[in-house]
């Protein structure tokens, strides 16, 4: 995990531009720049970014999508016990005092000889496969930064799911991806050999939504 010096932020405009998230997701207590890992653990569903607590946006349907994916992955892992999963409440450290909350995380047992999990509340390891299920307040710049952190920390794949368009973007590097629609099939590549999931089946298990209440996707 690489450490990047914190930028010098003079005002709120600098902070908003740097974090690339809507202002309502930024917690002002503790003061921006002063938040610690302990603060992130006390304020659940907050990521820690450059000393700032940023709320993780996740509606009920995004949560449902994550649970459905965990179901399919756990079935695969029952037969191929090559790793384990975390849900969206499992904090992971991407660099010193930089904490993220992927909606689903797959971690290979190769990182843990003897398959003994470490103590502590934060996993100091970037998942081999972080999965992000987009919410309406996620921004493109925010997600690009997450991908950069994940791949810099050793991720092999990143899946970004857009429930509105029913698509999955499969990233093999921070800026290399393939977009799959609901008629396509996901596969685990060399990371999860033999794993396949029809995207339509994933959405079917999560459940259909009333399209009249859908809102816009990424803000920018």
Protein architecture, described:
- This protein has two domains: 12-55, no CATH class; 60-213, tt1808, chain A (Alpha-Beta Complex), CATH 3.90.1570.
- Helices cover 25% and strands 26% of the residues.
- The chain has a six-stranded mixed beta sheet. A two-stranded antiparallel sheet has the order 1-2.
- A hairpin with a 2-residue loop joins strand 9 (167-173) and strand 10.
- The protein is built from five helices and twelve strands.
CATH class of the largest domain: Alpha Beta
| Regions with little confidence, pLDDT below 50 for 5+ residues | 215-220
Whole-number mean pLDDT: 91
Instruction: Estimate percent helicity.
Output: 25-40%
* Distance linking N and C termini: 28 Å
Strand order, largest beta sheet:
3-6-7-8-9-10
The sequence of SSEs as H and E is: HHEEHEEEEEHEEEEEH
Number of domains: 2
Would you give the CATH topology of the largest domain? tt1808, chain A
What keywords describe this structure?
6-stranded mixed beta sheet, tt1808, chain A, 25% helix, 220 residues, 5 helices, alpha+beta, two-stranded antiparallel ribbon
In brief:
The chain has 220 residues and is α+β, with helices and mostly antiparallel strands.
Spell out the blueprint of helices and strands.
Layout: H1 12-19, H2 37-42, E1 46-49, E2 52-55, H3 60-79, E3 83-86, E4 92-95, E5 98-100, E6 104-108, E7 129-133, H4 140-152, E8 158-162, E9 167-173, E10 176-180, E11 185-188, E12 192-198, H5 199-206
Parallel strand pairs: 7-8
Antiparallel strand pairs: 1-2, 3-6, 4-5, 6-7, 8-9, 9-10, 11-12
Helix pairs in contact: 3-5
């Amino acid at each position: 995990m690489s450490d990047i010096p914190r930028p010098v932020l003079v005002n709120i405009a600098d902070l908003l531009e740097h974090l690339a998230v809507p202002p309502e997701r930024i917690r002002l207590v503790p003061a921006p720049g002063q938040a610690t890992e302990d603060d992130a653990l006390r304020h659940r569903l907050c990521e820690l970014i450059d000393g700032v607590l940023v709320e993780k946006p996740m509606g009920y349907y995004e949560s449902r999508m994550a649970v459905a994916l965990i179901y399919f992955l756990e079935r695969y892992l029952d037969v191929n016990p090559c790793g384990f999963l975390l849900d969206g409440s499992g904090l992971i450290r991407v660099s010193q005092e930089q904490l993220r909350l992927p909606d689903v995380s797959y971690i290979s047992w190769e990182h843990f000889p003897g398959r003994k999990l470490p103590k502590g509340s934060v996993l100091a390891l970037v998942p081999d496969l972080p999965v992000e299920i987009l919410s309406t307040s996620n921004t493109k710049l925010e997600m690009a930064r997450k991908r950069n952190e994940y791949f810099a920390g050793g991720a092999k794949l990143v899946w970004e799911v857009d429930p509105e368009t029913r698509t999955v973007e499969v990233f093999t590097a921070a800026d290399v991806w393939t977009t799959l629609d609901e008629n396509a099939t996901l596969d685990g590549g060399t990371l999860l050999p033999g794993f396949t999931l029809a995207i339509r089946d994933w959405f079917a298990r999560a459940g259909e939504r009333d399209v009249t209440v859908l809102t816009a996707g990424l803000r920018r």
